[in-house]
């Protein structure tokens, strides 16, 4: 911690850890003192709880309650409790788990049936249709006309039958610290590494920035496609997209 503070030359640390994490707080405060970095403690007000919140005496009670509900679940629990939640039917489909990116957490995620790094790989036609329809519906709700909504949706979600994910040749990979499918992916350590090295394994960044006019798809700094090592090396060296590479 102290080494990190010195190396990254922080001016200020805001410690917003949980009130129960007393040891963590002490470590942070101590590191700040030694590194000469200003330290602020942020404590949430104890009674500032959201309206409509539901309380349970323990994890089991929460799991029982969730089993009677539908829809997706954002879990910010510690990875130690994951196994209890994994008892929920459809857990892997419903749950979005946010855990610290440590090997033990990842192992717990995998044991609970989750895939913590690769966020999208093979998709069936039905799945692609569902994603595309959801996108169109969201745009319609925003006031788009039907044809405009379909056109705009097609730039972000491939139309059913045209997605590389249906081929089984594409993967979406995100950084555990940033799982947003937007341009901020580009700055993550995972993408920096993948953009530099994926060609060595036969994968290319399929929809690069500045090539949207040619690919017809927005910049996707998370979507990689397997093209084989030779083609990947040439595409990488030439700085072209697949359409340009294949053009006669
Ligand atoms: Zn993708």
Question: What can you see in these coordinates?
Answer:
This protein has 248 residues and is of the alpha/beta class. It contains 13 helices and 8 strands. The chain folds into 4 domains: 2-41, no CATH class; 59-115, no CATH class; 124-163, no CATH class; 169-248, Muramoyl-pentapeptide Carboxypeptidase, domain 2 (2-Layer Sandwich), CATH 3.30.1380. The protein has helices spanning 2-7, 22-35, 59-67, 82-85, 91-94, 103-111, 125-141, 146-156, 164-167, 189-197, 212-215, 229-238, 242-246, and strands spanning 12-15, 38-41, 73-75, 95-97, 118-120, 170-173, 203-205, 223-226. The strands form 3 sheets. The chain has a 4-stranded antiparallel sheet. α2 links the parallel β1 (12-15) and β2 (38-41). The chain binds zinc ion.
